[in-house]
């Protein structure tokens, strides 16, 4: 029997989110229904509600979640009812041209549920990043469920489902940070702070956190930043060069998604260094760069979708590091809230008061 459950949607561009009844179908072939235990509020949810991603309203928001598998459809063998899973938005297909070349982290044909969740009047919802987890239970493709240690705290490990994985992977997978590197991270929200933690785990010796908010810089220190720069009062490019022997950092991670911070990242890296864009720009934004600088500085300008993760490889590993006390996922949880508190969580995010607000169901 399809269930009717409470969920948070963005009905129209820019309007406050609403709690509504949503109909969740029973899982069909290759699908699963997951009872959500916790779901973080990511900046991408706010991008969706502001129409910054696309216009497929109404959106079922939330996409950074963990929970228990409640039902599986025909042919699902890799997960079973009762499994504790983190939801992912990269259910690799195994057959596209990226997968066929052994690069599933770039899978071009990731899977989502085939059936739609709807409002009670039949209006189809667009689940954020193919997940939609500000809801009591959600319908996903079974490959979107990654089984992890059931002893782990859902509030913390759910964050691996998006922002923390994106930031950690931007440093470790995309940026290739390793022992002895210098790293700068511009924008230290949930994503940027995870990039700092990732750089620390990977053995970077200089980790410079840049933000416009002192609270974020304090948290960045606790997660592994060795230096902090408030770019409201200090030029970040000069500051990063100063702290890296005048050269710039080996890897600079942009975790804001704005032209001015991208340019700072571009000019703050060392020759042959790497820039990683993990912040998501809105479609109107542009950057202009002298081509001779792009050529002359060498190195790599990369972007990072989801930290170039492979969920089945990376989620269990990060849960292990967390359970061993080597990666403080709990530090990202600034507050736990209810489904009715998401607008306030967006305000707190805008005001820089939180790394992550996490909805607990
Ligand atoms: N690539 C991906 O796979 C992926 C995944 C999740 C989120 N994101 C994106 O990453 C970005 C960050 O997400 P978040 O959840 O950490 O957001 P957030 O709002 O928690 O953090 C953004 C941070 O940037 C800081 N900031 C804003 N303007 C700045 C400036 N000019 N200079 C320096 N710092 C500045 C803010 O103070 C804040 O600390 C967003 O664009 C989000 O959409 C990307
Ligand atoms: Zn694929
Ligand atoms: Zn996200």
Draw up the topology in text.
Layout: E1 3-10, E2 18-24, E3 31-40, H1 43-49, E4 59-60, E5 65-72, E6 84-87, H2 97-100, E7 118-119, E8 126-127, E9 137-141, E10 145-147, H3 154-157, H4 163-174, E11 182-186, H5 190-202, E12 206-211, H6 214-222, E13 227-230, H7 236-242, E14 249-254, H8 259-267, E15 269-277, H9 291-297, E16 300-303, H10 311-323, E17 335-337, H11 342-350, E18 357-360
Parallel strand pairs: 4-8, 11-12, 11-14, 12-13, 14-15, 15-16, 17-18
Antiparallel strand pairs: 1-2, 1-4, 2-7, 3-5, 3-9, 3-18, 5-6, 6-10
The protein binds nicotinamide-adenine-dinucleotide and zinc ion (2 copies).
Structural overview:
- It contains 11 helices and 18 strands.
- It has 361 residues and is α/β, with parallel strands linked by helices.
- The strands form 3 sheets. Strands 3, 5, 6, 9, 10, 17 and 18 form a 7-stranded mixed sheet that branches.
- β12, α6 and β13 form a beta-alpha-beta unit.
- α4 packs parallel to α5.
- It is globular, with a radius of gyration of 20 Å.
- The mean pLDDT is 97.
- The protein binds nicotinamide-adenine-dinucleotide (NAD) and zinc ion (2 copies).
- Nicotinamide-adenine-dinucleotide binds next to α1, α4, α5, β12 and α8.
- One zinc ion binds next to loops.
Strand % is 25-35%
Question: Ligands bound here?
Answer: nicotinamide-adenine-dinucleotide, zinc ion
Task: Count the beta strands.
Answer: 18
Low-confidence runs of at least 5 consecutive residues: none
Radius of gyration from the alpha-carbon trace, in angstroms: 20 Å
Query: What separation lies between the terminal Cα atoms?
Result: 22 Å
Structural class: alpha/beta
| Helix content bin | 25-40%
What string gives the helices and strands in order?
Answer: EEEHEEEHEEEEHHEHEHEHEHEHEHEHE
Coarse shape: globular
How would you state the average pLDDT, rounded?
A: 97
Q: Output the number of helix runs.
A: 11
Main sheet: strands, sense, barrel: 7 strands, mixed
């Amino acid at each position: 029997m399809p269930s009717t459950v409470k969920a948070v949607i963005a009905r129209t561009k820019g309007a406050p989110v609403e709690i509504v009844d949503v109909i969740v179908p029973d899982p069909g072939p290759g699908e699963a229904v997951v009872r959500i235990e916790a779901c973080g509020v990511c900046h991408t949810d706010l991008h969706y509600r502001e129409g910054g991603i696309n216009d497929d309203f109404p959106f079922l928001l939330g996409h950074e979640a963990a929970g228990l598998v409640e039902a599986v459809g025909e042919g699902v063998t890799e997960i079973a009812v009762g499994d504790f899973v983190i939801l992912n938005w990269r259910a690799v297909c195994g057959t596209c041209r990226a997968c066929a070349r052994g690069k599933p982290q770039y899978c071009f044909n990731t899977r989502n549920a085939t059936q739609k969740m709807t409002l009670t009047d039949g209006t189809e919802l667009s689940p954020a990043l193919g997940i939609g987890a500000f809801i009591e239970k959600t319908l996903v493709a079974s490959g979107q469920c990654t089984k992890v240690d059931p002893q782990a705290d859902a509030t913390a490990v759910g964050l691996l489902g998006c922002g923390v994985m994106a930031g950690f992977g931007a440093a470790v997978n995309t940026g290739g940070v390793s022992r002895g590197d210098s790293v700068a991270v511009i924008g230290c929200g949930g994503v940027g702070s995870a990039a700092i933690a990732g750089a620390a785990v990977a053995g970077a010796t200089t980790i410079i956190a840049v933000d416009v908010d002192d609270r974020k810089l304090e948290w960045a220190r606790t997660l592994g930043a060795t230096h902090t720069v408030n770019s409201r009062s200090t030029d970040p490019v000069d500051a990063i060069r100063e702290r890296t022997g005048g050269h710039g950092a080996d890897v600079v991670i942009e975790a804001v998604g704005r032209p001015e911070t991208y340019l700072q990242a571009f000019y703050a890296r060392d020759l042959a260094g790497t820039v990683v864009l993990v912040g998501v720009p809105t479609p109107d934004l542009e950057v202009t760069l002298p081509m001779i600088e792009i050529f002359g500085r060498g190195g790599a300008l990369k972007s990072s979708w989801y930290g170039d993760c492979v969920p089945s490889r990376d989620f269990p590993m990060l849960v292990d590091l967390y359970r061993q006390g080597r990666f403080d996922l709990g530090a990202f949880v600034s507050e736990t809230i209810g489904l009715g508190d998401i607008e306030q969580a967006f305000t707190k995010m805008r005001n820089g008061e939180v790394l992550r607000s996490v909805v607990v169901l």
